[in-house]
Design a protein that fits this description.
mainly alpha, 208 residues
Length: 208
């Protein structure tokens, strides 16, 4: 019988396995013991590469940020930023169980620092001052994070699951919301997300 060579355990392999596990089972199910079983090792073996569960969660954020696609610099500042936030939203769609970590554990790693630097460099190169570039980064990041979280959790009053639907509300008490009921079920979330980006970028261009 020929022995099968087992792939050695390292930090990256552990982090990628954790992302796959949470994609499949959900964040609440993650534990060092279950992750060890996923990798075919004892949980204690994991601590040689990640000191604790907090470091594991931070590392999973690092893996997601590594999947973020930034367009080349010659795309122009507006299109580069637009594409970056489209890519950010795609992370939520591809990893809905892991994505909330980006919101509750803001990336404090070199990957995160590098992305902020790229954003600021793009806006500074376009002619914005440092303060405006910072405000723009936070405004756009807050919008994209909030929209992506609402999208994966479910928007209020849309006819999904057992959530309160607009059409169930009294047209006398909530005439404007009730009127939206026929539209909420067929909202194009791609178009809606682009609408928000357009508003923010149009306001930003007005600052140049």
């Amino acid at each position: 019988m020929v022995a099968t060579k087992r792939r050695s355990l390292d930090r990256r392999r552990i982090l990628e396995a954790a992302v796959r596990f949470v994609d499949r089972e959900g964040l609440e199910a993650l534990s060092m013991r279950k992750l060890g079983a996923e990798l075919g090792v004892e949980a204690m073996s994991l601590y040689n590469h990640v000191p604790n569960k907090g470091a594991l969660l931070d590392g999973m954020v690092e893996v997601l940020l590594g999947e973020l696609e930034l367009p080349p610099e010659d795309e122009g500042w507006e299109e580069r930023i637009r594409e970056a936030y489209r890519s950010f939203r795609r992370l939520a769609r591809e990893h809905p169980n892991v994505f909330p970590l980006l919101v509750i554990r803001p990336p404090d790693t070199m990957d995160g620092v590098w992305l902020v630097e790229e954003f600021l460099k793009t806006l500074r190169g376009a002619g914005f001052d440092a303060e405006t570039a910072l405000y723009a980064f936070r405004a756009l990041s807050g919008y994209a994070s909030g929209y992506a979280m609402a999208e994966i959790r479910g928007f209020a009053m849309e006819p999904s699951g057992t959530r309160l639907g607009a059409l169930t509300l009294s047209p006398d008490e909530f005439p404007n919301i009730h009127e939206l009921g026929i539209h909420l079920g067929k909202v194009d979330h791609d178009a809606e997300f682009e609408f928000g980006l357009d508003l923010l970028l149009a306001g930003l261009k007005g600052r140049l």
